[in-house]
Design brief:
CATH topology: TIM Barrel
Shape: globular
Bound molecules: adenine, zinc ion
Number of helices: 17
CATH architecture: Alpha-Beta Barrel
Helix content: 40-55%
Radius of gyration: 19 Å
Length: 351
């Protein structure tokens, strides 16, 4: 910490406004999960795609999820409207503009190529569209963007290996690989070879683990896939030895509070285990996951969490914002500059 911060003098209302204005990084956002219903219907009309929902309202009514799979079924239906490079560009550009309003200065966005290539969309269409929006966001919004290619874990490892090879002509456009989709019954060890190959290629490694799946999945993501961050990871608390290890190794957890409530991982935000994760010394970050489906972008996640959990302090807020930079895949110099900006915002509070 470069500047003294008077945490004790930050009032609750002030803290909520600090959360909104503070610079932050978002490390867990599925770009297909940022497709708002209005854009889904606009793209469906443009591309002549028939949706199993009559209109925007009917689609929104389907956003009553009971678990991860019930969400994924709707999410894949929504993604079916993406056909051209311009569609991927429009989707990502809408997210970047929205994220910039939340003072996101750096984001690492997940994309699911298999969702598109399985429908006959070329890999280059997906990556070029996303990359065009990312370059524009960097130029026009001053937003730093990295892409992370995710494998769908309900498919087999050969499909993931073929997907990675198919993406290699655009190797310079993505920094890492991840693992998402249906967790239960699809443990990380299913993907050991493709993660080893990604590692050989110099890619950074992350995986969803411990969202619905058991702590053993977090362990195998660390030991067999050798991931550097765990997406969600909230079920780690069931395994004290694992918690001690995550704390000791400072493995970032990209936690998504509104997602966890929408997918029934926790009953409500007031029962989220973030206070316990922080008390255990874990490197927790706050993220939106699939903001168009879960009722909020990153600032909504921060503000609603702090409104629901009075035990969370200004020090916790600062720690999670700082963790977002420390856990990101950028040069140390950039991390340092953003942390200085964060410190300046927090230090501006007069004792
Ligand atoms: N794909 C999009 N959102 C996801 C989530 N929360 N968990 C697993 N896969 C996903
Ligand atoms: Zn996710």
């Amino acid at each position: 910490m470069t500047l003294p911060i008077a945490f004790a003098h930050i009032s609750r209302p002030h803290l909520l406004s600090l959360l909104r204005v503070a610079p932050k990084a978002e490390l867990h956002i599925h770009i297909e999960g940022s497709l708002e219903p209005e854009l889904i219907f606009e793209l469906a009309a443009r591309n002549g795609v028939k949706l199993p929902y009559a209109d925007v309202e009917a689609l929104r009514r389907a956003y009553a999820f009971t678990n991860l799979q019930s969400f994924l079924d709707v999410y894949y239906a929504g993604a079916s409207v993406l056909i051209t490079e311009a569609d991927f560009d429009a989707m990502a550009w809408a997210y970047f503009q929205r994220a910039a309003r939340d003072n996101v200065v750096h984001c690492e966005i997940f994309f699911d190529p298999q969702t598109h290539t399985a429908r006959g969309i070329a890999m280059g269409v997906v990556i070029r569209g996303l990359d065009a929006a990312a370059r524009r966001a960097e130029a026009e919004l001053g937003l730093s963007v990295r892409l992370i290619l995710c494998f769908l874990r309900h498919l087999d490892e050969d499909d993931a290996l073929a997907t990675l090879e198919a993406a290699l002509p655009w190797r310079d456009k993505f920094v890492g690989v991840g693992l998402d989709s249906s967790e239960m019954g699809h443990p990380p060890e299913k993907f050991t070879r493709v993660f080893a190959r990604a590692r050989e290629l110099g890619l950074r490694l992350v995986a969803h683990a411990g969202e619905e799946g058991p702590p053993a999945y977090i362990r195998s993501a660390l030991d067999l896939l050798r991931v550097e961050r765990v997406d969600h990871g909230v079920r780690c608390l069931e395994d004290p030895e694992l918690v001690a290890r995550l704390a000791r190794e400072r493995v970032p957890l990209t936690v998504c509070p509104l997602s966890n409530v929408k997918l029934c991982v926790f009953d409500d935000l007031g029962h989220h285990n973030i206070p316990a994760l922080l008390a255990a010394g874990l490197c927790v970050t706050i993220n939106s996951d699939d903001p168009a489906y879960f009722g909020g972008y990153v600032n909504d996640n921060f503000v609603q969490l702090f409104e629901s959990l009075p035990s969370l302090t200004a020090r916790d807020a600062y720690a999670m914002l700082r963790n977002s930079f420390e856990g990101s895949f950028v040069e140390d110099e950039d991390k340092g500059l953003w942390i200085e900006e964060l410190d300046t915002v927090f230090a501006a509070i007069e004792p």
